[in-house]
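Researcher: I'm comparing several assemblies side by side, and this is the next one on my list. It has 774 residues spread over two chains. Same procedure as the others: predict the full complex and return the structure.
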Amino acid sequence: MAKLKIGIIGIGNMGSSHARYLINNEVPGAELTAVCDTNPERLRWAKEALSDRLQTYDNDNEFFASSGIEAVIIATPHYDHSPLAIKAFKQGLHVMSEKPAGVYTKQVREMNEAAKASGKVFGIMYNQRTNPLYQKLRDLVQSGELGEIKRTNWIITNWYRPQSYYNSGGWRATWEGEGGGVLLNQDPHQLDLWQWTCGMMPKRVRAFCGFGKYHDIEVEDDVTAYVEYENGATGVFVTSTGDAPGTNRYEISADKGKAVIENGKLTFYRLRQSEREFNREYQGGFGEPECWKIDVPIVGKATDHKGITTNWVNAIQNGTALLAPGEEGIKGLEISNAMHLSAWTDDWVDLPINEDLYYSKLQERIKASTFQKKHTGNRTLNVEGTH
Amino acid sequence: MAKLKIGIIGIGNMGSSHARYLINNEVPGAELTAVCDTNPERLRWAKEALSDRLQTYDNDNEFFASSGIEAVIIATPHYDHSPLAIKAFKQGLHVMSEKPAGVYTKQVREMNEAAKASGKVFGIMYNQRTNPLYQKLRDLVQSGELGEIKRTNWIITNWYRPQSYYNSGGWRATWEGEGGGVLLNQDPHQLDLWQWTCGMMPKRVRAFCGFGKYHDIEVEDDVTAYVEYENGATGVFVTSTGDAPGTNRYEISADKGKAVIENGKLTFYRLRQSEREFNREYQGGFGEPECWKIDVPIVGKATDHKGITTNWVNAIQNGTALLAPGEEGIKGLEISNAMHLSAWTDDWVDLPINEDLYYSKLQERIKASTFQKKHTGNRTLNVEGTH
């Protein structure tokens, strides 16, 4: 079979990282043939550092129409993910979008419709779905081992970023450039894993955001959110780029026990009798169901970005099921949008959110922005081990 | 020196526990000489199980006036703590109140005033303050080792109670009998330790309560609360009697690192450079301050209820400083009242709370209660290892 011709649009931090494993032929059946970026410096870098046979483009129309690529990885700033994906689908290309799927759900819904109409393979770079820890947690929920979920609690504050990170790119951490802060840039993986492992979305959200609390930025760098689910369960999500050292601890409490992911381990506290049943039957006053602490074996390793790209290439060439279908990108984004909206309105937000209201509130912030970044020009940072 | 004559009013679960160590002469310089309870069965039990020389009383007026006691431990249902303490202070008695200090702060403020006017020694049974784990955490904050606090997060869901616990006493878990659920009965220790270890009270609270969510009761058995402090820090407190197995994990994130208490251990993640300073100075984009993980040595053991009583007796006899002054009981209660009020009004609550509003909202609930408990009479439960 001929190799799948892949192009990358956006050769910044993440785009360069995808380019490297592709150029090294680490994804079987695929080859990187073209890249596109508006910054000529990055195109020069691609020729020099990757391959001088790479085609380079400085505008997306030409790139999509003339480069001969069959599939594209979109790794531009967030706002462009959806419009570029829509263009690519119209050109008959398969699409892999970096996270987040977009900045507001209205935009992402249009992208999902374009994907459906095209019949092409649409993936999203939720590389954390390749992590066997979260796969196993999802398995505990889906298989019924955990029972009905009562509570979710994720403290994900280990996204520490110093001010120099924010100063490294003019688009970073602005309403106009990213459409948000930690929720849009750092947390899309966790927001996705949260709903993916539980198999349920919140039905309403009450969130509290600190905007520029720890950094000289206009968007949120600190969030605490409370959510309620349809089945009565509640949840908490705490995130920040201002805590050092941060915490990454995710707990699900359920009818048949509790699962905790922390320090790269999954511990299952398994009840031998359902709590609800014990509650009804036990007559002793004090007491609780017998509980076994289980270190759940985790097999394999996260295949990460390369794994997601490989899975997408296999889906294109062999019809393999996608681990992270692009259409699911809207879920985590909707939670993120709901958190923003709740903080902005200082009120509850029901899901599905009012997309038009969100869009207009976001535009208000973009228009009202008087934020001037003291940045030192666009720097490309090495992201190895950070995403 | 003659032994301090102590009486106990309320010989239920907790009162019996205090009586046992006193009757065994485990508190130097003190002796249990009288007990009071409205339930004749409990008085018979006291004579039989403790000592037939014990004076027994079935009404508090006579008990305070004629028993010859110098000091009293109040271990009645919550509502009676404040009024009984006020009576006792007027009789010139030293007072140790079980937690909570009362049910609403209006009542407790009056008790504190009576204590002050009497000049007697007033303690509260915050036995968890004798726990060297929490003492050490407080030390890390007070000594400046942790630096300015940014975030507190306490998941204290290991208060599991089955329905039979609630059925064991008619007063349990009713607005009229306890004035609340998990916040009033199980959490007073943690609500106190939360503010005591941090050395600060929230300035506003947004809380979400499930009332009778996991049990056939009318009060809250599940709470998630978000708080904000004067210095800009935020906090989360999650508690429940419906989770099995529960979690007890308390984290403080601060400018010079992070402290975590879990599984009986205190871990201090110590930054070698203040995060705020690093944030300003570091120019590398990605990166964070050097961090040392430290297992903080914990010396000694919690002396618990007996320790608090001994400390109180020493304060009476030798002027030793109280570890848990009674006047501080209002702090945790105010947080608890604020959480209720926030849930009832579905809105923010500023501290100090509107005491009259709280009182009237509580009365509404008492009046509106149609709750009929399917209880099997008042049972005295063995509380060893549970409080």
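Model: For your comparison table: Chain B has a mean pLDDT of 95.
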